[in-house]
Specification:
heterodimer; A: alpha+beta; hypothetical protein PF0899 fold; 6 strands; 26% helix; elongated; B: alpha/beta; Rossmann fold; 7-stranded parallel β-sheet; 8 strands; 19% strand; HypA/HybF (chain A)
Chain lengths: 117, 247
């Protein structure tokens, strides 16, 4: 359900950018980066985006979500590993707990593909 | 000051297009507005010398009852509560019986508190002489998912997991347990009636978050409340020392 709020935040940020442009471009595609170790369900985000952009300056714009896997770093093994979401977060080799997270927590608006007015 | 938005970076137009196409780099966190609000709330708490904790759990894990028991035990601290509830004031009413200021925030259909809602709560707190307060507890909406992503201006996150919820919950809702600074395993008075493995709960939490402080508590019998209240007391001391250093 929070994807609705996140989509509002997303559209708000793009609108701020769009309002600041002297000539209003058409936004064709919005690129998001979403880590798998977040509480965000890409399908819900996609749905909320399609609904909330209807009739706005973003009507018809596409939302492209790039998943980033959870990667942790084991200090004992000096190696990165990918935890199994839902079952195993400790290092598969030495079973040290998940300390540093290298990626997977991203929730980023990356870039917009636009056509000039 | 709001962060200025980046100006469009113009890419080379593609020849086949009638109009010029370009990429605009935004490179912003999706939740930057919430984060900014959270930082603003924290600045208010810091200014008043208040430590703020964000109390989170699934519905029915016992946040309100634990808070009631905590309020009875924390005699040396001046506490206020910002109470998030979807539609009712039932929890707020219960807590008011303990003689502390309680600000109720109805989130409507939202499943979590965000920094803007808590800012509204802080505004109401101003009527309660905030400078005299030591601790503000934000009781979030019961939910193990959404509140983990929305900072509200807290200095520490406390998660609750009741013994009836199952050992696997930390594995299924890892973000909440990763983000927590303290975990309270609640309703331990029920353990003799259940097939629950407390060591397994702890092991599951530890593989996600090796540094979290874990306490076993029962609001009913009072088990573990002293250790939890000591942790809270210490959190308040650490925070006020930090503020004195930065003044």
């Amino acid at each position: 359900m929070h994807e609705t709020d996140m989509t509002k935040a997303l559209i708000g940020t793009i609108r701020d950018w769009w309002d600041a442009q002297p000539e209003k471009p058409t936004v064709q595609k919005v690129h998001l980066i979403v880590g798998t170790f977040t509480c965000v369900e890409p399908a819900s985000l996609q749905f909320a985006f399609d609904v909330q952009t209807q009739g706005t300056f973003l009507d018809g714009a596409e939302l492209a979500i790039k998943d980033v896997p959870l990667v942790a770093h084991c200090h004992t093994c000096h190696a990165d590993y990918q935890p199994e979401l839902g079952s195993q977060y400790a290092c598969p080799s030495c079973h040290s707990p998940m300390e540093d997270i290298r990626s997977g927590r991203e929730l980023k608006i990356d870039r917009l593909e636009c056509v000039a007015a | 000051m709001p962060t200025p938005l980046p100006i469009a970076r113009w890419a080379m137009p593609t020849v086949s297009n009638m109009h010029q196409t370009f990429d605009a780099a935004i490179e912003m966190n999706l939740l930057h507005a919430n984060q900014r609000g959270a930082d603003h709330n924290r600045a208010h708490f810091d200014q008043w010398g208040i430590t703020c904790i964000n109390l989170m759990s699934s519905p029915g894990a016992g946040k309100t009852q634990l808070l009631e028991a905590t309020l009875k035990s924390l005699e040396n601290l001046q506490v206020a509560v910002i109470e998030g509830d979807m539609t009712t004031e039932l929890d707020a009413e219960r807590l008011r019986q303990h003689g502390v200021p309680v600000v109720a925030i109805n989130t409507g259909r939202s499943c979590h508190l965000d920094s803007k809602m808590v800012a509204g709560g802080i505004q109401q707190l101003q009527q309660h002489d905030p400078q005299s307060l030591d601790l503000v507890v934000v009781e979030n909406v019961g939910n193990l998912v959404c509140p983990a992503e929305f900072e509200v201006g807290e200095h520490a996150k406390v998660a609750l997991l009741s013994v009836t919820e199952g050992e696997d919950k930390p594995l299924k809702y890892p973000v909440m347990f990763r983000e927590a600074d303290c975990l309270l395993i609640t309703k331990t008075d029920l353990v003799p009636h259940l097939d629950v493995d407390l060591a397994q709960i702890e092991a599951n939490v530890r593989q996600i978050n090796p540094t979290v402080a874990i306490f076993h508590v029962s609001a009913k019998t009072g088990e573990g409340l002293d250790a939890w209240c000591n942790w809270l007391q210490q959190a308040v001391t650490v925070q006020s020392n930090r503020l004195q250093l930065t003044v």
